[in-house]
TrEMBL record:
SMART domains: BBC (SM00502), BBOX (SM00336), FN3 (SM00060), RING (SM00184), SPRY (SM00449). It comes from Oryzias melastigma (Marine medaka). The lineage of its organism: Eukaryota, Metazoa, Chordata, Craniata, Vertebrata. Gene3D superfamilies: 2.60.120.920, 4.10.830.40, Classic Zinc Finger, Immunoglobulins, Zinc/RING finger domain, C3HC4 (zinc finger). One of its GO terms (biological process) is protein localization to microtubule. This is Midline 2. GO terms for cellular component: microtubule. Residues 360-419 form the COS domain. Belongs to the TRIM/RBCC family. Residues 506-699 form the B30.2/SPRY domain. One of its GO terms (molecular function) is zinc ion binding. Keywords: Coiled coil, Cytoplasm, Cytoskeleton, Metal-binding, Microtubule, Repeat, Transferase, Ubl conjugation pathway, Zinc, Zinc-finger. The keyword Cell division does not apply. Its main location: cytoplasm. Residues 120-132 have a biased composition (Gly residues).
Length: 732
């Protein structure tokens, strides 16, 4: 369940998706989170309505918007339904009553009388008359598919006719408040409710969105809703498990025993089985071949030719003719018996074909799939049984009893081949995806059918270790063996960290490695920690926005909380001690703030940057500066700065600030980190909002690479990289 919940979590707000949008790149995003991303791109010269594109926070794919903006993107209705069911299953538990109750109206039955004369009228009497009334249904809640038939027999001297009263279901309105409800005139397939004429006009006016609802003639409620899952009550079947040949629901695939099985949609399975036509020729070809009356004549001709070819062997001829005659009688007897069996099989096959053709006329997907398996098995058995109908008597036998046939052995010898190790697989960088603690690796192989399994190897890439020596060091590599598919998700990785991946293709002859791929996890996501927020700061419910509030709030004082006059700050809820992490701060209209990082031991009663344990970028009205250990330095930045990007490269000892909207570098601290650091934020007016867990943008990654190269040159560590690393791509 925890793995499922992580898959249903928004990468921005770190909560379950709410009103998710389906992006063109196949990722999803909360509508409100997408709106916040658009707001972050706004400026005084660039209003919200003019923004026509933004990047997916998961894969950085550029999403182009039409004139409708976010409303032009499709809602991920399937994902929302899965989240609703997941929340319902999480809250209720297996023993709690989770049945969703819907109105189940009474469905009285109307009687139609069809009378037939069942006996012969005796004497001089006429028809034994009178009218017959059908007894009412025993329960007003009887199932609408149940056939209620009452046989009323008037036993008199003249053998009166038996009148059969058949109770057909009366479809009642499910929206009426009166008792009993009126008879339904239409059923809405979209709403799954039957309506009378009055309720239909009240609930479905002739305007959108009701004009798109599909109305049909009244149908029973159970037929409309289809079949329900056998394991999850009130869940409709909407999938077909190909492993177990069973109808299942969405919960069976998500959290049930079918979650690892291959499934198909009902429509695909319906079309596939519907296309399977039972051909009478498949069963009867062998029958017709075996029933040819010329079989015996062919055998007699071969025997006559044999006698002519052996006329010179008079002593052996009589004996051979006797043997051949015995064989002839035996084979003719076999053929006669087989022809009789074939005729019987042909009759049974014709009946089976008729039944299969009737099944093919079923149009309800679920009911067709339910019956298709048994029909298909019977057809398969009939087809298999037809193989025994092929005559086992050689009609063209030349009686060459001493001839040896080596054709099968020759074919086997010609087909011998030596098994070789498979070709190296290829890691598909463009298909690989990452989160803050997982990486999914995809690869392809030219020898997919000769590969018995794959092995995935990975380790942290430091950028300063010789690659060949790193590969030869077995202790530093993690190995995932016996992978059967061509993709694998590695869990529990460090956030914001580069890794080297290999894929090894294995069979009985040996193994070969792929070229290395360098992939990177996303930055560590975090929120503002309410326990550290100054008492004159107000945090949003999602702890992503902080706002200056002069009205003093009653908050308990703790050592972690910012205090003192003017120290209006808050810290993130994570401490970072490795990796490369990137987050952005949406500054809005604030003109007085400070953003940076600090050790846990940094004082909470003074400005960040006034001590040796914190580093910040700050703005005070029209002045921008960086501050550390009480020392300030003015830096150049645009007065229109609305989105500040922060890159913390802990492993390479750097902290840099960027204008994320204009893709410009502002300043970089070179720091020898000694302890874990926490993101810190201070404001003196307005409000700011943070976006964390983001991939590192290309322009920021380029600046970081230049800085790293500069540091290596300064330390004398510039080296020639292994040719295996040339041209590698980084997965964000």
């Amino acid at each position: 369940m925890e793995t499922l919940e992580s898959e249903l979590t928004c990468p921005i707000c770190l909560e379950l998706f709410e009103d998710p949008l389906l992006l063109p790149c196949a990722h999803s995003l909360c509508f409100n989170c997408a709106h916040r991303i658009l707001v972050s791109h706004c400026s005084t010269t660039k209003p919200l309505e003019s923004i026509s594109a933004f990047q997916c926070p998961t894969c950085r794919y550029v999403i182009t918007l039409n004139h409708r903006g976010l409303e032009g993107l499709k809602r991920n209705v399937t994902l929302q339904n899965i989240i609703d069911r997941f929340q319902k299953a999480s809250l209720s538990g297996p023993n709690s009553p989770t049945e969703s109750r819907r109105l189940q109206p009474q469905r009285p039955y109307t009687a139609t009388i069809s009378g037939t004369i069942a006996g012969t009228i005796g004497g001089g009497g006429g028809t034994g008359g009178g009218s017959a009334r059908g007894s009412p249904a025993t329960s007003s809640h009887s199932h609408p598919h149940t056939n209620h038939t009452n046989h009323i027999n008037h036993n008199n001297a003249n053998h009166s006719p038996a009148i059969v009263v058949k109770m057909e279901p009366r479809i009642s309105c499910q929206f009426c408040e009166q008792d009993p409800p009126r008879e339904a005139v239409k059923t809405c397939v979209t709403c799954e409710v039957s309506y009378c004429d009055r309720c239909l006009r009240a609930t479905h006016p002739n305007k959108k969105p009701f004009t798109s609802h599909r109305l049909v003639e009244p149908v029973p409620d159970t037929h409309l809703r289809g079949l329900t899952c056998l394991e999850h009550e009130n869940e409709k079947v909407n999938m077909y498990c190909l492993v177990d040949d069973q109808l299942i629901c969405s919960l069976c695939k998500l959290v049930g025993r079918h979650r690892e099985h291959q499934v198909s949609s009902l429509t695909d399975r319906f079309d596939k089985l519907k296309a399977y036509q039972v051909s009478p020729g498949r069963v009867s070809d062998a029958v017709m071949e075996a029933s040819k009356t010329s079989a015996a004549q062919t055998l007699e001709n071969n025997l006559t030719n044999l006698v002519k070819r052996n006329s010179e062997l008079e002593n052996q001829m009589a004996k051979l003719i006797q043997i051949c005659q015995q064989v002839e009688v035996m084979k003719l007897r076999k053929l006669a018996q087989q022809i009789a069996n074939c005729r019987q099989c042909l009759e049974r096959s014709s009946a089976l074909i008729t039944q299969a053709e009737q099944s093919l006329k079923e149009n309800d997907h679920a009911r067709f799939l339910q019956s298709a398996r048994s029909v298909a098995e019977r057809v398969a058995m009939a087809t298999a049984s037809s193989q025994v109908l092929i005559p086992d008597v050689n009609l063209n036998e030349a009686f060459d009893n001493f001839a040896l046939d080596f054709s099968r052995e020759k074919k086997i010898l010609e087909g011998l081949d030596y098994l070789t190790a498979p070709n190296p697989p290829s890691i598909r960088d463009e298909l690989c995806t990452a989160s803050h603690d997982t990486i999914t690796v995809h690869w392809t192989s030219e020898d997919e059918f000769s590969v018995t399994s794959y092995e995935l190897q990975y380790t942290i890439y430091t950028g300063q270790t010789n690659f060949i020596s790193l590969y030869n060091s077995a202790d530093s590599w993690m190995i995932v063996p016996n992978i059967k598919q061509n993709h694998y998700t590695v869990h529990g990785l460090q956030s914001g960290t580069r890794y080297i991946f290999f894929v090894k293709a294995i069979n009985q002859a040996g193994s070969r490695n792929s070229e290395p791929a360098r992939l990177k996890t996303n930055s560590q996501p975090f929120k503002l920690d309410p326990k550290t927020a100054h008492k004159k700061l107000r945090l949003s419910n999602d702890c992503l926005t902080m706002e200056k509030d002069e009205s003093s709030l009653k908050k308990s004082h703790t050592p972690e909380r910012f205090g003192g006059t003017g120290s209006y700050g808050a810290a993130g809820n994570v401490f970072i001690d490795s990796g490369c992490h990137y987050w952005e701060v949406l500054l809005g209209a604030s003109t007085w703030y400070a953003v940076g990082v600090a050790y846990k031991s940094a004082p909470k009663n003074e400005w960040n940057g006034k001590n040796s344990s914190s580093w910040v970028f700050s703005r005070c009205n029209n002045n921008f500066m960086v501050r550390h250990d009480g020392k300030e330095m003015l830096v150049e930045a645009s007065l229109q700065l609305r989105r500040l990007g922060v890159l913390l490269d802990y492993d390479n000892n750097s902290l840099s600030f960027h204008d994320a909207m204009n893709s410009q570098h502002i300043h970089t601290f070179e720091i020898s980190f000694l302890l874990p650091v926490v993101p810190t934020f201070m404001i003196w007016n307005k409000s700011v909002m943070i976006l964390s867990g983001l991939p590192v943008p290309d322009f920021v990654d380029g600046v970081a690479s230049d800085l790293q190269e500069h540091q290596q040159q300064q330390m004398g560590l510039c080296r020639q990289e292994s040719p295996y690393l040339t041209g590698m791509k980084t997965c964000h």
